[in-house]
Input
Amino acid sequence: MTSVHFIIVGLYLAVSTTYSFPFALTPAISDDVLDAILSYFPKDVGVFLATLTPQEMAIVSQIAGEKPLSSTDDDWSEFMLIVRDQSESLYSKIIREKRKQNEKRMKLSFKGRDFIKLFEAKQNSAFLPHAIELKPLTARMAALDLYLKYIALSELDKQDYSTPRERNQKLSLSSQEPGTPLTDARSPDLNNLDVYKAQLIIVSALQGIEYNDETSHEFSTALSKAEMSVKKMMYKFFTAKNGACASTMENNACKAFHCNPADLSSVELNKENIRNLKRLWMFLKDEILPNIVLLLYPLGYTFGDFNEREVLFTFFRDKVCLRIFKNNKRKISSLHTIMHTLLCEAEDYSESAKEFRRLASIVLDGGEDYTLSSCSTNTLPSTSSGLYDFDMEDTAYRRISCSSVLTSEFDENDDVFVDEQYFHLENIEFEAISGEVNV
Output
């Protein structure tokens, strides 16, 4: 690092108590990189803390003192569960703050997101926005260090650094004549949002297909510019109680446990299946969720109640966990993180939520198994009737077939698919596009 760089760092340390950034000293900084630094990292943790009441601040201080919080999922889930027991208002504030940080990240440019990835790799943990164990100065110094390394690169290296990953190679689902539009979900042409292709992309993403930044950006941009009727269609397609998300959660579980949907409630929670459930959860959280957020976040600006994370976790709870834990009567410590997360982040007002709380109390505490309620059977009631009800015909959204998305007749008046077979799913139809789901 040159002497000029040391001067910059020294000046930065001098002004760090106000958490500003040395704009004047870095005139050549890329706007996208600067936006990544200043948009993603809070300028002052005190801004969030100032919103807390004295009682809430006391709760935060007490919990943080009794249980130091790290970046691990286990600690975060347990912390949020404790907060929720102590104060609903504090819990809501922290959740809102966390979502705001996620939204900021989703709005970053390609270079901005790449910058954050580099930062997180360097820090070896995500930057937590809840202000319990934050080190704002450390975070900013690490960001500045990355920037100093960036400006020391040659112009050619800078260009390579900031260029988005190349678009995935375009592969068609069948042989095509030159000039024929491609239909592969992994690299679609999204200059104009095609409904069938868009729905195929969503289904494939729910199965674990990872799209690069450019494709995700094209999709989300096309979705944000689409007509309201198309946005409404995508909203229903994803959130309907027997729609794409619900059906694919069930299908992924069947692959993980090697069973039919009707047999999920009979899965024995032995050592191997507990391991399979944990793999399935990690597959959802680490692969499916980030991809879905990048694709569908524009729907959140149109529909105020739309939350991709909540929808995914709710259907994972209802289509998988309610059945898997139906007959469980013992405490399973290794599943605490999953249970805590679903208790905190899935919808919380339906009969299914109430039933899950009962089942979770057994897994978490080894509580007594009371009489099973009707919503833990294979025919679950709607868990999202309050949030995602557009008076749609549920039968039109039976299990999704990728090939049917491209070939089925569509009734524009009803905004639902009409097909005699109602998209009956055969695993081979999914595998033709995405291969087996690895869990």
